[in-house]
């Protein structure tokens, strides 16, 4: 482990202890919840959309709440900041590599489900909002 990795570890701990955008939105465009039963992680994402001047749906605000391990909660905190200003299409194009890059540390296969939970919740929420998916709850089991 080099110094770079230590820096990222510090960043993960900082997001875990001082989560950004923690809470719930008063008037979210969509809300979705998910869990990672393997670890006991739970995430709720509230997303407020706005339409930009080109008619694209853009993420105006994100709030998350939840409970779980440092990786899952830090990932949700970082993602909530990262998503602000992105279009819904950009959100849907994200994959697990984007989350791993964002966290900046090697994620073991066991912990990858912790890392991607928030991203899955946000993406499934967006697809349900667009009527492309029917789901009560996202789980990393599928
Ligand atoms: Zn976890």
Task: List the SSEs and their pairings.
Elements: H1 3-17, E1 30-36, E2 41-51, E3 57-67, H2 70-83, H3 88-93, H4 96-103, H5 112-129, E4 138-139
Parallel strand pairs: 1-4
Antiparallel strand pairs: 1-2, 2-3
Helix pairs in contact: 1-2, 2-5, 4-5
The structure holds zinc ion.
Give your account of this protein's structure:
With 142 residues, the chain is an alpha+beta fold. It has a single domain (3-139), classed as Sufe protein. Chain: A, CATH 3.90.1010. Helices cover 43% and strands 22% of the residues. The protein has helices at residues 3-17, 70-83, 88-93, 96-103, 112-129, and strands at residues 30-36, 41-51, 57-67, 138-139. Strands 3-2-1-4 form a 4-stranded mixed β-sheet, with helices on one face. A hairpin with a 4-residue loop joins strand 1 and strand 2. Helix 1 packs across helix 2 (70-83), helix 2 (70-83) packs across helix 5 (112-129) and helix 4 crosses helix 5 (112-129). The longest helix is centred in the C-terminal third of the chain and has 18 residues, at 112-129. The chain is globular, with a radius of gyration of 15 Å. It starts with a helix and ends with a strand. The structure holds zinc ion. Zinc ion is lined by residues 36, 39, 41, 68-69, 71-72, 114. GO terms for molecular function: iron ion binding; iron-sulfur cluster binding. Residues 7-133 form the NIF system FeS cluster assembly NifU N-terminal domain. Pfam families: NifU_N. This is SUF system NifU family Fe-S cluster assembly protein. InterPro entries: NIF_FeS_clus_asmbl_NifU_N (IPR002871).
